[in-house]
Amino acid sequence: MIILTENNAFQNISKCLNAKCDSEIQVYDFLQFCIEFIFYDKTKITGTVPLNVIDNTTNLINLLESKYSIDFIDIESIEEDSENGKYLINSIAKQVFTNIDEFFNKSKSLSEKDLWINFPELSEESKKLIINATNAVKENNKNIYLKKYYELSSFSRDSGYFKILNSNIKIIDKIFEFNEKEGWNISMTLNLLTRIRFLTNKSMAENKYIFMPSVKRGRDDFMYGKMPVETGEIEKENPIGFLELPSIKNHIIKKGKGKPHNIMESAVKLREKLIPIQKYIKKNKINIFNDTKILKEIENAIFDELNVSSQKLKVAGNIRTYDYEQVSVIDPDLLINNKSLETCIQAFNEITMDTSGNICEYEKDLINNCMKK
To answer: Cα separation of 33 and 43, whole Å?
Structure first.
């Protein structure tokens, strides 16, 4: 299986490694990437971003490859002039139009400051264009509105989510109708752009990849591939609202002793040990983020699929151990030697049975090490 990661989240890896994070939530994007890296064979990064962000993305991909030998990342873009690109843009526009009045009403009271955080890559010039487009709606001037979004398109490698706003007459009419009845503000513009970007990225992933939005977007707007939820309605026991695998998160933080570079190196080592798990996930097209119980199911399935001839099962606490005398693997793709199998199962047990809860001893150290000083 291939992960499609939101570009905003990917940029936060660099911020963590260079101690330039502005908020704690960015640290969890870094941890989420590490977990994706451990279990999945390939990651694609969304390319619906301005050109300067594409350059930053390419530089970060090159850094991860040269420093950590991470060579499974590339950029996924929309070919707007292709039949598929045109279909995607039309499909997204229809999704945006669904329940649009209700969406506008919910957007009115959202925090402008919080919404700008969803667009950290925008230049000051782009921000001015968005503000001017908002003012054009307030002044009931469609020509200026369309002109500003056309100018915004020039800043993006993929201008698809801007095209949705300036090419779908139904959405444009709805925006201006709503302004006449209820008024319009910058929060509504930003939330509409946020929704369109999310739907664009999600549509790019549909039937091809597992889409992973940033942790912030997951917390604020969506819950793991499910339908949108009202902003702020997050399970209390999961304050991040996105990392559903606390035992693995805790394990890699502790292995790296709260230091981001050490955590990355620890993830690389774990990835090498868990190759049979990765292959099983890929073969069965499993999304480990959909269900917190899925890892136990994978573990059981792996044991079922492996015919261990000497099955002298020993129980040491909650940890399973086997005598590895001879191993015959039903699936030739999972064929590995005895030592590799033993290493894999031991590593898998270790990361899935960490019972230290949501906060481990080094988590505060990690956050402090990643924050901008």
So the answer is: 9
Prediction pTM value: 0.78
Task: Report which of 312, 317, 322 is spatially closest to residue 345, judged by C-alpha positions.
Answer: 322
Cβ-based burial of 18 (10 A; exposed 0-12, middle 13-18, buried ≥19): exposed
Q: In Å, what is the CA distance from 52 to each residue of 47, 48, 80?
A: 11, 12, 19
Q: Are 310 and 322 in contact (CB under 8 A)?
A: yes
Q: Which long-range contacts (CB under 8 A, 24 or more apart) does 217-222 make?
A: 217/6, 217/8, 217/118, 218/242, 219/25, 220/114, 221/194, 221/195, 222/198
Mean pLDDT by 10 residues, the chain (373 residues): 89 94 91 91 86 86 93 85 81 83 86 81 79 91 80 55 68 91 92 84 85 78 38 32 65 92 93 84 80 70 52 37 37 48 74 62 92 90
Angle of CA points 254, 257, 262, to nearest 5° = 105
One-letter amino acid for residue 107 of the chain: S
In angstroms, the CA 363 to CA 359 distance is 6
328 is written with which tokens? Answer: 């015959």
